[in-house]
């Protein structure tokens, strides 16, 4: 929390003294970043872990739930088929059914296979954890005719780009849900499901019609109402008509493909956007990261990159529809820019982004925040000069490098104190360190981060690696 806030006049004076862009954080990192949300990979990709020990390729985990015979397995098969050019594995919750004891077997008609306790969820979590961390696992093979697992054989499941976990109750347990990057619920009418189930269980699972109907009335339907249906609310996508819904499956596959092409952190945090890398962008990064580049070229290429990030960030603002008449007399239906907008730069390096913002948004108001270390006791002062009506505006927060995330978090905290809704803040930067992304996104999950590259890590001195050194000094020419 800031010790004090004051006006911009003070800022300008203070700005000529020591400044911090997240690199000098004496005393601040002793307390770990707050962890308020639990996201799929937190257990496996800790912000404290070094890049070598964290995962190079975080798999995309999809949960597929729905009532019995709704078409879950069919939908999964279709997704897997369409993702043929990726490594995809399917894990069935059914594989983790507990085997019945001889006593239970004798009275199998009284056994409730639709209750959460029928599954060994601990074992499933362990298997999923290993798969997500890149290890192969041996998944049990379950026999629906014998109600037992095979005692001698297992199915080897290898680490993959996409892991699909499918089953009637995969959304029931929060720990299981937290593993998932995307949750799909397959919907089908109860009578359709019952008809399919009768056919499947009599043909494939060695049952007779009367036992299927009896089990359905006694256990399957009540458990659907008690456990499966209430978990539908956790779904990100609901597919009506299951495998017949080709449009939904195409959209899902498209989404998965997009996610697979993204940085792992974008899979974990949907609010992080890395602008699409092109050779132009890589070329500009190559130039500004080169320690031997001239100051003039550093500024020139940084400005070009900043402009791209700013334009991309503006694309995340809300818009309203607007029609205009063109010189041909035709009507063009377009959109109107968001008017309630302002920029806020984190002094000093954030000021390097102000020109690009002004060039894109004529007359935009730009406020400033300075986070200033007060002596050597770890205390910080925050100076600010912000538009009075900032709480009514969307805010583009500017800082070219996101390192530890501590200064960013303090600036964001201040904006929120001023009444800006978290979801109205878009944090723009050129380079983000994974540690900074974890730190900001965990604390402010609905804030958006738009960046042009995510670097490898921070070093012991909290400098972004490979990074580009002290951006403000290089941009403003104070590094000699
Ligand atoms: N859209 C569909 N039309 C007709 N039959 C279907 C359809 N989807 C699935 N089935 C059949 O219904 C049964 C149950 O489907 P399945 O995908 O195994 O459901 P779940 O895995 O949800 O229990 C299977 O025999 C399958 O072949
Ligand atoms: N020995 C068993 C184990 C499970 N079931 C039923 O399977 C259903 C889940 O599989 P779906 O492919 O239909 O999702 C579940 O409703 C159980 O009743 C069984 O009959 N016998
Ligand atoms: Mg199935």
Automatic annotation (TrEMBL):
Pathway(s) per entry: Pyrimidine metabolism; UMP biosynthesis via salvage pathway; UMP from uridine: step 1/1; Pyrimidine metabolism; CTP biosynthesis via salvage pathway; CTP from cytidine: step 1/3
Q: Where is this region: Disordered?
A: 25-57
* UniProt catalytic activity: uridine + ATP = UMP + ADP + H(+); cytidine + ATP = CMP + ADP + H(+)
Keyword ATP-binding in the entry? The reply is yes
Annotated GO CC locations: chloroplast
> What Pfam families does the record tag this protein with?
PRK, UPRTase
What InterPro entries does the record tag this protein with?
P-loop_NTPase, PRK/URK, PRTase-like, PRTase_dom, Uridine_kinase-like
> EC number(s)?
2.7.1.48
Phosphoribulokinase/uridine kinase domain location, by residue? 61-247
Q: Where is the composition biased (Polar residues)?
A: 47-57
Gene Ontology BP annotations: regulation of starch metabolic process; UMP salvage
Is Transferase set as a keyword in this record? yes
Molecular-function GO terms, alphabetical = ATP binding; glycosyltransferase activity; GTP binding; uridine kinase activity
The protein's UniProt keywords, in alphabetical order, are: Allosteric enzyme, ATP-binding, Glycosyltransferase, GTP-binding, Kinase, Multifunctional enzyme, Nucleotide-binding, Transferase
What spans are recorded as compositionally biased (Low complexity)?
A: 30-40
- What is stated as this protein's family in its record? In the N-terminal section; belongs to the uridine kinase family. In the C-terminal section; belongs to the UPRTase family.
Query: What NCBIfam families does the annotation carry?
Result: PRK00129.1, PRK05480.1, udk
Output this protein's name.
Uridine kinase
Naturally occurring in which organism (per UniProt): Crotalaria pallida
């Amino acid at each position: 929390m800031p010790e004090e806030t004051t006006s911009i006049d003070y800022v300008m004076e203070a700005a000529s003294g020591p400044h911090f862009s997240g690199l000098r954080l004496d005393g601040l990192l002793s307390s770990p970043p707050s962890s308020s949300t639990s996201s799929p990979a937190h257990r496996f990709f800790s912000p404290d872990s070094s890049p070598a020990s964290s995962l190079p390729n975080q798999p995309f985990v999809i949960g597929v739930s729905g009532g019995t015979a709704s078409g879950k397995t069919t939908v999964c098969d279709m997704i897997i088929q369409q993702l043929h050019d990726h490594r995809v594995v399917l894990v069935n919750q059914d594989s983790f059914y507990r085997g019945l004891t001889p006593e239970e077997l004798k009275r199998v008609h009284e056994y409730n296979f639709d209750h959460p306790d029928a599954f060994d969820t601990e074992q499933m979590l362990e298997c999923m954890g290993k798969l997500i961390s890149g290890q192969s696992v041996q998944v049990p093979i379950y026999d629906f005719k014998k109600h037992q697992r095979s005692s001698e054989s297992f199915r080897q499941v290898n680490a993959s780009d996409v892991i699909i976990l499918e089953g009637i109750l995969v959304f029931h347990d929060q720990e299981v849900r937290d593993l998932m990057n995307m949750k799909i619920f397959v919907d089908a009418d109860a009578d359709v499901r019952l008809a399919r189930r009768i056919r499947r269980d009599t043909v494939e699972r060695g049952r007779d019609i009367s036992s299927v109907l009896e089990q359905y009335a006694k256990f399957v339907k009540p458990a659907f109402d008690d456990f499966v249906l209430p978990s539908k609310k956790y779904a990100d996508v609901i597919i009506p008509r299951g495998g017949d819904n080709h449009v939904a499956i195409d959209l899902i596959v498209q989404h998965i493909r997009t996610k697979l092409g993204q940085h792992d952190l974008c899979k974990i945090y949907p609010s992080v956007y890395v602008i699409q890398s092109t050779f132009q962008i890589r070329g500009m990064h190559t130039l500004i990261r080169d320690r031997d580049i001239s100051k003039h070229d550093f500024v020139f290429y940084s400005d070009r990159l900043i402009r791209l990030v700013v334009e991309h960030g503006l694309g995340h603002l809300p818009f309203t529809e607007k029609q205009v008449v063109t010189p041909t007399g035709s009507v063009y239906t377009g959109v109107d820019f968001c008017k309630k907008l302002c920029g806020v730069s984190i002094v000093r390096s954030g000021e390097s982004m102000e020109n690009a913002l002004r060039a894109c948004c004529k007359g935009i108001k730009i406020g400033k925040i300075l986070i200033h270390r007060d002596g050597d006791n770890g205390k910080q002062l925050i100076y600010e000069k912000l538009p009075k009506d900032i709480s009514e505006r969307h805010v583009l927060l500017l800082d070219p490098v996101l390192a530890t995330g501590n200064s960013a978090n303090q600036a964001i905290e201040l904006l929120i104190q001023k009444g800006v809704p978290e979801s109205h803040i878009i944090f723009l930067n050129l380079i983000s360190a994974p540690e900074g992304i974890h730190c900001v996104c965990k604390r402010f999950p609905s804030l958006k981060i738009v960046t042009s590259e995510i670097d490898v890590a921070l070093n012991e001195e909290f400098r972004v690696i490979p990074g580009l050194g002290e951006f403000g000094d290089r941009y403003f020419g104070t590094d000699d």
